[in-house]
Amino acid sequence: MTVQADELLELALATAREAGRMLVDDRPADGPDVVQTKSSPTDVVTQMDRAAEKLIIDRISTVRPGDAFLGEEGGTRAGSDGSPVRWVIDPIDGTVNYLYDLPDWAVSIAAEVDGVAVAGVVDMPRRGETYTAVRGGGAFLHTATGARQLRVNADVPLGQALVGTGFGYAPERRAHQAKVLTGVLPNVRDLRRGGSCCVDLCSLAAGRIDAYYERGVQAWDIAAGALIVQEAGGRVEGLSGAAPGPEITIAAGPGTFEALHDLLKPLDPARD
Ligand code: IPD
Ligand code: CA
Ligand code: CA
Ligand code: CA
């Protein structure tokens, strides 16, 4: 079955924007309700996370009924009819920002064909920004005034690098991440903790930060953002050439990646 990445991008784009608009328009004035907690009492899910994931899966499966889904809020289903496409969805990346009405949260949708991400969209309605990428076709930032192609900052020495990171919610993970942080901070320009993994990755693609690392991120956090960084000329990997994932995800321009990787490797070695 031949699938055109451009067509998948178009569907992802329309759907992410519809979900983004709904999340702005329907956000209760007194804030969303916490309907579930996950790894800790502060790892929350709101009714809006669930509503956005439902909207996204409904829209895409109406157009492409055979495709598979991996969604953070349980919207995981196998494909049918031999479709090679799987949609990887984070309906709100940055739920805590959304809960507090901070603007940096996003709808993230990636389309994989035979397990390879070929199209990705990260929509940030409160910033008025949408990031897109198609494998082999570059990464773009779309705003009300037009679109521009993205390039990572290529040659930033680690000591001059502005580095984004994030913290998983589980307490034992936090203690470990705090230790890693004390090893990173003296070796970089500064650190940023924005509260949304895919916003961090898009900021890297746009040259607003120089690098990013985090332990504990899942496929739905990084699927679209990693493609956007790669298409902007950056590297997104785990340790020693492993695929990025929960163990660790490191992203940076080519001139910064190795130094950050080598700094993190002894600080944050592979472990359970
Ligand atoms: C979280 C955000 C955050 C990161 C956490 C993620 P969520 O995703 O991406 O920046 O540090 O590890 O879990 O739960 O808001 O979708
Ligand atoms: Ca979550
Ligand atoms: Ca997320
Ligand atoms: Ca989420």
Automatic annotation (TrEMBL):
This is Inositol-1-monophosphatase. Belongs to the inositol monophosphatase superfamily. Its EC number is 3.1.3.25. The keyword Transmembrane does not apply. InterPro entries: IMPase, Inositol_monoP_metal-BS, Inositol_monophosphatase-like, Inositol_monophosphatase_CS. It comes from the Bacteria. PANTHER family: INOSITOL MONOPHOSPHATASE, INOSITOL-1-MONOPHOSPHATASE-RELATED.
